[in-house]
Each structure stands twice: as structure tokens, then as C-alpha cells.
Design brief:
alpha/beta; 52% helix; single chain; 538 residues; 13% strand; three-stranded mixed sheet; four-stranded parallel sheet
């Protein structure tokens, strides 16, 4: 047996994370100490094995590879060198199990920091050092958790940055979440779209994200429903932080929100409603009227499909209700959608109407501005009331001892915090108009002048938006007679009151100056309703 085989050794080195392999010189420092020790002992290094994971973990790739290497050696007794006991393990159970594995593989553990032995005193010292190492790991974990908890309590996000955010070091405040563009804007559009009803279901949000090249997909190129659910429930997007497992309830965070508190609340209300529609391939894109038009015979929403012919497929709408006279009878897509375009074209009013509208809405704009100050004072009083309720609830939580009561109080505190933040946002918005009168009306009037712009868009979301803004109820369609009388939404109803034959504006006393005939409360009521609708569009 040669001295080479008797004196061969391997080095095992370990750090606790992948980050530590890139920051600092822990692995190389451990190897240097072990090589110095090997030269002193006259050992020949035949391999170096590494791991980058917690010392509490027993199953490690580097350790398994090293043990396999040692087992294959013809001569037992290969020295396994470690810089310190803590490099082998950071837990007593893990240490003892790895010691047994090393012995069973035919290895002998050595270190420049401790002399391992099989006598009772050596085993006691080794186990004490392993226990101390475990205690240090647990203490470090406890201290880290306490620091993270305190930071969350102060309003800072400490977990992995949600999609749309990234960490950035801010002087005097440490690492903070900041918007990660352009992804942040994509997520903002998705969340606000769901809150406003632009996306009717989570499946619509899923389709939007899947079609957007800026949104990251999984390894299979998909956006799964679970991921959409996480996005919709993530309070961080509304500027909040919380850590329920640490006893830290919802509170306003230090980072910039992607959506408003009101938008977040609307999302939660929609989610609690349990409305969810499963994804159905691309039928909605191929048949935009699907779900918005009903059969005039039975009032059932029309479905749609591609019918296979001898040479190609043909698109049809049809009634799905058995027993209906129109059940299963096809309506060509180009026919029904062509008639729909004609219907939309009939809603376009004259240019003169918009001049009247502008004068009406300017008057109402000034009225709303005068009310803003009163509303702000009223919301301020309500905010004081909410803060008083919060203060009392927090005192009750401190005095309570029954877990179920404490939980009920904490849930109420969470709701009040959301209400408090929403009130602050409303006060900020009512204090000053977000845009000028002309800017606020531009988007709404552009839509009213030519609704077909949205219908002819390539985006299914634009087409669905047109249907929601133009009609208050689903359209009824007859295979023989076409569309029945449509239930238009408020703005088109209002415009219809002012439109006469040949696109002119009818006046009760003839075609005199228009403004004289629309005074009084009726005009004001129409204006107020129309004005509120306009701001829903803008």
C-alpha cells in the first residue's frame, strides 16, 4: 500500500447561500486554510467539493458527490478536511447524521480548528461545538426575523419584490420597492382593467397578460390562473405592507403604489363576488358579440362556433337553448356583425350637439368644483371618526385575551385601515381637478363622435369596452328581423332626447337658440348624470 493512497485527502467547503459564492471570499478562504493544514500533515489533495446551502440541510449535492467519491477509493481512510465544525453542519442532528455517513463511506473527518476523536471527551467537545453552531444559526435566524418584522412594522416591504417592482437602495432608508418599468405599467393596466370591469373575469386578465410581450411567462410560455390570482390579491400594489404570520396587520407602506386604494378595494369586492369564467381558447377574439347579444325568441345569450365545410371553416353565431324555435340555427358572423356596425353608426350625433353639451357641462364643471370643498370637509370629518374607531379597537386588542375576539378585532382594524386610506385618496383627488375641463371631455367626446373607432380596433378589449359603454342591456337579435330596439346607455339616451330628424337638434318651440330650451332642473339632471358617465370614461 503506497503512502500516496494513505495520505490522500479531499476538502469540503460550504457557504449558506448562492449570494455568498459571489459576494465575499468564504469558499476560497476555507480552502486555503484546509490546504495549509494538508501541507502541515503531509496530505495530498485529490478533490475539492462545495455546497451553497444552509447548514441545517442534510441532503446536499456537493456532500453527496464527495461521499460517492470517497466510497470509490480502493483504500479506506481518505481524509475529509473542513475549515470548522460549522462548515459541516449548523445543527446537531445534521452533524451527527453526516458524521455517520462519512464513517460509513470510509472517510476520516479532520479540521485545523478541532481534533476529532472517538473517546468520550472528544465526542463531548465535538457535540458541544455542533450545538453551539446550531444555537448561532437559530439566533441569527431569530435576529434576522426580528429586524425584518420591525421593518415591516415601519412600512417597508422585506420579501421578494412583487412583479412590477424592484429593490433600489435609498439613502437613509435602505432597500425600498420602486416601480420596475415597463412591467409596472402593464400590471397597472391589468389591475385597473379588472377593477373597472374592462376585464370581466380573471380569465380576461390572464389573456391580456399572455398577449403582452412585456409580461414574463413561465417555462412553458404560459401565464397560469394562480399567478393572476396572486396579482389581484397583492396588497403591495396599493401601497400596503403586511406580515400576518408575524402578527403585523395591514398598514400603509413606504413605497409608491401602482394602483390606488380604491382600485384595490374594487378588485377585492369583485373577487369576493366569486365571479370567474374559465378561459375558452380564442372564441372571444373571433366572436366579439358572444355573450353580449341574446336570442330574441328565448332571451338566451347567443353562443358561437366555427363550422367545418368541405374546404374551410365558417364562423357562425347560434342559440344554444334546446326547445327554442331558433335552437342551433346558424347566423353568419358577417351578417350579424355587419348589422351591428350599422346600429352603431346610427348613434353618431351631429356636431352642433357637442357645442350645446360643452356649455352645459362647463356650467356643471364649475358647480362640481364648488362642491369639492364641502366634500373634502365632510370626508375629513369621516376620517377623524375612522381614526377614533381605530384607536379604540387597538386598545381593545391589547386588553383582549380570547384568540377569536382578537382575530375579529384585527380583521376590523384591517378594514378600517383600507377605509382610512381610501378616504385620504378621495380627499386628495377632490381637492384639485386631475385635468382641465377641455382635457376631461376630450376622451369622452371622441368616443361619442365616432364609436366605430373602438369596434374596428384589433384589440378585443376595445370592442368589449364599446359594448359596455354604448348599451345598458344585452342586445336582442332575431334571425329574420335583425336587431330589436336597443337599450342604449345613459349618454346616448340623453343625446337621443336632443336629436331630431335628419341629424338636427329638435327644439320644443322650433329651431331657436338651443340653450333657452334646456334650462331648469331637467337639463341639470341630465347634465349631472351625463357628467358622471363622462368621468367614468376619461
Amino acid at each position: 500500500m503506497s503512502d500516496t493512497h494513505l495520505n490522500q485527502a479531499v476538502i469540503y467547503r460550504r457557504v449558506s447561500s448562492i449570494k455568498q459564492t459571489k459576494v465575499g471570499d468564504g469558499l476560497n478562504s476555507q480552502e486555503t486554510r484546509c490546504r495549509d493544514f494538508a501541507r502541515l500533515k503531509g496530505y495530498q489533495i485529490v478533490g475539492v467539493f462545495s455546497d451553497d446551502m444552509s447548514g441545517s440541510t442534510k441532503q446536499r449535492p456537493g456532500m453527496e458527490t464527495m461521499l460517492s467519491f470517497v466510497r470509490k477509493q480502493k483504500v479506506k481512510g481518505t481524509r475529509i478536511l473542513i475549515d470548522d465544525v460549522s462548515r459541516l453542519a449548523r445543527g446537531l442532528d445534521a452533524h451527527l447524521e453526516l458524521r455517520r455517513s462519512i464513517a460509513e463511506a470510509g472517510g476520516v473527518l479532520e479540521s485545523p480548528s478541532i481534533e476529532f476523536g472517538e473517546d468520550p471527551d472528544s465526542i463531548l467537545v465535538e457535540n458541544l461545538l455542533a450545538s453551539v453552531s446550531q444555537h448561532q444559526r437559530q439566533k441569527n435566524g431569530e435576529q434576522t426575523k426580528n429586524r425584518m418584522k420591525a421593518r415591516v412594522q415601519n412600512g417597508y416591504w422585506v420579501f421578494q419584490a412583487p412583479a412590477g417592482y424592484r429593490y433600489e437602495r435609498v439613502s437613509g432608508r435602505g432597500k425600498m420597492l420602486v416601480r420596475d418599468e415597463p412591467l409596472a405599467s402593464v400590471i397597472q393596466e391589468a389591475l385597473e382593467g379588472y377593477a373597472s370591469g374592462r376585464f370581466e373575469s380573471q380569465a380576461d386578465v390572464q389573456r391580456f397578460l399572455l398577449s403582452n410581450p412585456l409580461f414574463p411567462k413561465d417555462s412553458r410560455g404560459e401565464v397560469r390562473h394562480q399567478r393572476v390570482s396572486v396579482l389581484l390579491n397583492q396588497a403591495a400594489y396599493a401601497g400596503y405592507v403586511e406580515a400576518p404570520s408575524w402578527g403585523v396587520d395591514l398598514r400603509v407602506g413606504q413605497h409608491q403604489p401602482i394602483i390606488s386604494s380604491q382600485t384595490y378595494q374594487r378588485i377585492q369586492e369583485r373577487l369576493k363576488g366569486g365571479f370567474y369564467a374559465p378561459r375558452q381558447s380564442n372564441l372571444q377574439e373571433d366572436f366579439p358579440l358572444r355573450g353580449h347579444v341574446v336570442c330574441s325568441d328565448c332571451n338566451t345569450p347567443l353562443t358561437a362556433c366555427w363550422s367545418k365545410g368541405s374546404n374551410k371553416k365558417y364562423p357562425y353565431y347560434l342559440c344554444p337553448k334546446r326547445g327554442c324555435d331558433s335552437y342551433g340555427k346558424s347566423i353568419r358572423r358577417d351578417k350579424i356583425e355587419g348589422e351591428f356596425e350599422d346600429l352603431i353608426g346610427q348613434t353618431t350625433p351631429s356636431d352642433a350637439l357637442f357645442e350645446v353639451g360643452k356649455s352645459m357641462f362647463k356650467e356643471l364643471w364649475d358647480y362640481q368644483g364648488a362642491q369639492a370643498e364641502k366634500n373634502t370637509k365632510a370626508m375629513g370629518a369621516k376620517l377623524d371618526k375612522v381614526e377614533g374607531q381605530l384607536s379604540k379597537l387597538l386598545e381593545r386588542i391589547l386588553d383582549a385575551s380570547v384568540p377569536s375576539v382578537i382575530k375579529a378585532y384585527e380583521e376590523r382594524v384591517r378594514d378600517l385601515e383600507l377605509e382610512k386610506q381610501a378616504l385620504k385618496e378621495k380627499m386628495a383627488l377632490s381637492a384639485k381637478p386631475a385635468s382641465t375641463f377641455e382635457e376631461a371631455l376630450r376622451t369622452a367626446f371622441e368616443f361619442l363622435k365616432n364609436p366605430l373607432i373602438l369596434w374596428r380596433s384589433e384589440r378585443i378589449e376595445d370592442r368589449q369596452l364599446l359594448l359596455k359603454l354604448t348599451f345598458s342591456k344585452r342586445l336582442a337579435y332575431s334571425r329574420k328581423e335583425g336587431f330589436r330596439t336597443a337599450n342604449f346607455s345613459l349618454p346616448f339616451k340623453v343625446l337621443g332626447q336632443f336629436l331630431g330628424c335628419h341629424g338636427k337638434m329638435a327644439h320644443p318651440t322650433g329651431f331657436e337658440p338651443v340653450t333657452s330650451a334646456f334650462g331648469g332642473w331637467l337639463s341639470f339632471a341630465y347634465s349631472l348624470l351625463f357628467f358622471n358617465w363622462l368621468f367614468g370614461v376619461c
